[in-house]
From TrEMBL:
Belongs to the glycosyltransferase group 1 family. One of its GO terms (biological process) is lipid A biosynthetic process. It comes from the Bacteria. The lineage of its organism: Bacteria, Pseudomonadati, Spirochaetota, Spirochaetia, Leptospirales. The chain crosses the membrane at residues 6-24. It is found in: Cell membrane. The keyword Lipoprotein does not apply. The active site is at E61 (proton acceptor). Residues 46-210 form the 3-deoxy-D-manno-octulosonic-acid transferase N-terminal domain. Its EC number is 2.4.99.12. This is 3-deoxy-D-manno-octulosonic acid transferase.
Length: 425
């Protein structure tokens, strides 16, 4: 019965989108892009290979899927990988990654939306990352004989899926899963009452830890940044800057509030989420009231180290954390927190805003004492000041975060062994 009402809802959404398609250009462009990405996958065929379909909601979950795909390819040579994503925040350029054989945007979750995909590719296994369990996708997989698994499973205590109206749909769709593998013991308890008796349920970890550690261990930052830290090696050995990563306007406002009420001798590296030249030009005079300010692209060799260094070069934040004392990670005062695993992997304590329910690793880090979550400007200033002053606290939190990341390495192997042992049965 719950599926009946859900399908009425999805069909209503479908009709609304069809109407908007006629009159709203961005909607038309988006729907055309999604249809194009789906249609082009049928030019390829598995040709007798073992077919695995991985689905990720957005960018973070795609990182989880990629780490798992790497393990699958290493251990299962004759495999064909299908990778779907839902969010348009995943750019089409990501589809050029050769890890998967085909990529596409998931269609609207109508009852027969996936029939052609299952008929053409005949996937033996469907691996859904984290939480994006579309009811009709799981039901169709079951009807077509495909075993489905929820990997790196996460569910926050504030999740809408615990709402009585949604809970029954969640429980109904979860019964089509052959296995649910939470990312952490603290996540496992949130699934209480939702898991069917015959569903394999075991904490196997989060593959995103491997993705982050692999990136830090095997890749290099922009050579310009490498040269910069080499030139500043002696200074950085004595002075660990505080990093503000992925900042938005509100983050910068709250940091300014801290500067107005506190004096320190710290140095700051600030990485805006997007370099907005006009916003930075407006903010720089304010920062100059509290110390010298530099912009990374304009820093010249031999110049003194500014108190505030604003980075206008993208793609280096993950590597910059290794030089810091602690990190503020942005996003959580606006819509959702950004990557907290990167600073944690390098042994830094973390402070964020309130919206961390999308990031199970951040929730666990908070529970373990390695992450401060600030709800308001006042709370941000208080907790930020505490981390600036208390070196012992920073070291304790940072050590805990590093251990948390390292201990969670190996999730891909665990998931592979569990799923593919079951998938053969």
């Amino acid at each position: 019965m719950v599926y009946f009402f859900y399908n009425i809802l999805t069909f209503t959404v479908f009709l609304v989108l069809k109407f908007l398609f006629l009159f709203v250009k961005p909607v038309r462009k988006e729907l055309k892009k999604r249809k194009r990405s789906l249609n082009q996958i049928f030019s390829k065929t598995p040709e007798g290979k073992f077919v695995v379909w991985l689905h990720a909601a957005s960018v973070g979950e795609l990182d989880q899927a990629r780490a798992l795909t790497e393990t699958i390819r290493k251990k299962h040579k004759n495999v064909f990988i299908i990778q779907s994503v839902f969010s348009s925040s995943v750019k089409e350029s990501s589809f050029l990654d050769p890890l998967a054989d085909v990529y596409f945007y998931l269609p609207l979750d109508l009852p027969h939306a996936y029939d052609r995909i299952f008929t053409h590719f005949k996937p033996q296994v469907l691996l859904v990352m984290a939480w994006d369990t579309w009811p009709n996708l799981l039901k169709t997989a079951s009807r077509k004989g495909t075993k489905s698994y929820l990997c790196c499973a996460s569910l926050s205590s504030q999740s809408s899926r615990k709402n009585p109206l949604v809970r029954s749909l969640t429980k109904a769709s979860f019964r089509y899963l052959s296995g649910i593998y939470p990312s952490h013991e603290l996540m496992a308890k949130e699934f209480e009452g939702l898991v069917a008796e015959n569903t394999d349920f075991l904490v196997l970890g989060d593959t995103r830890f491997e993705s982050v550690l692999g990136k830090l261990e095997t890749k290099s930052p922009n050579p310009i940044f490498t040269e910069f830290v080499s030139d500043q090696k002696e200074f950085l050995n004595k002075n660990k800057p505080i990093l503000l990563g992925s900042t938005y306007g509100v983050c910068e406002e709250y940091f300014t509030a801290y500067l107005k009420t506190h004096t320190d001798d710290a140095y700051y590296w600030i990485f805006p989420h997007k370099w907005d030249a006009s916003r930075m030009e407006d903010w720089i005079p304010t920062l100059e009231k509290y110390g010298t300010v530099g912009v990374f692209s304009k820093v010249k060799k031999g110049e003194g180290f500014p108190k505030f260094l604003l980075f206008d070069l993208m793609g280096i934040l993950a590597f910059a954390y290794q030089y810091g004392s602690f990190a503020y990670v942005g996003g959580a005062f606006t819509h959702r927190v950004h990557n907290t695993i990167e600073p944690a992997a390098l042994g830094l304590p973390v402070i964020t805003g309130p919206k961390i329910s999308n990031a199970p690793e951040a929730i666990v880090m908070q529970e373990l004492g390695g992450l401060f979550q600030a709800e308001t400007e006042k709370e941000f200033v208080q907790k930020f000041a505490l981390l600036v002053k208390d070196k012992t606290l920073r070291e304790k939190m940072g050590k805990g975060n590093r251990n948390f990341v390292v201990e969670n390495r190996g999730a891909s192997d665990k998931i592979y062994n569990r799923v593919f042992a079951n998938a053969q049965n």
